[in-house]
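ARCHIVE CARD
CATEGORY: sequence design from structure
SOURCE FIELD: tokenized fold
FIELD CONTENT:
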């Protein structure tokens, strides 16, 4: 052993240097919830928030995005704008799905 201490930042508030970790000892889910809220703004869903929901969201997050779209169709154009940046990657299936969803609903 080289004497180094390896501490996972999601399980401990102290890092290898003895200082406070980036999440001050919060559990992973609490840290993730804090990160999700960084995109909230008074104008509704920002492009960054939509990108976050599409790329890392779970089913409940997707349901919430769909409800937001049903309540305000302006979000369809924002979804298309976010997806255009990722659509060239054939492996970005989440973005392909949401691009198709947005285009279908804009055409209706």
């Amino acid at each position: 052993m080289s004497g180094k201490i390896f501490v996972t930042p999601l399980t401990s508030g102290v890092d290898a240097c003895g200082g406070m970790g980036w999440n001050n000892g919060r559990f992973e889910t609490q840290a993730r919830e804090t990160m999700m809220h960084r995109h909230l703004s008074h104008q509704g869903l920002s492009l960054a928030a939509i990108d976050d929901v599409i790329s890392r969201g779970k089913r409940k997050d997707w349901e919430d995005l769909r409800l937001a779209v049903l309540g305000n169709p302006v979000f369809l154009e924002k979804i298309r704008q976010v997806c255009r940046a990722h659509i060239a990657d054939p492996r970005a299936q989440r973005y392909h799905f949401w691009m198709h969803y947005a285009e279908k609903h804009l055409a209706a």
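CARD ANNOTATION: Residues 25 and 84 are 37 Å apart (CA to CA). The chain is about 55% helix and 0% strand.
SHELF: design records, drawer C
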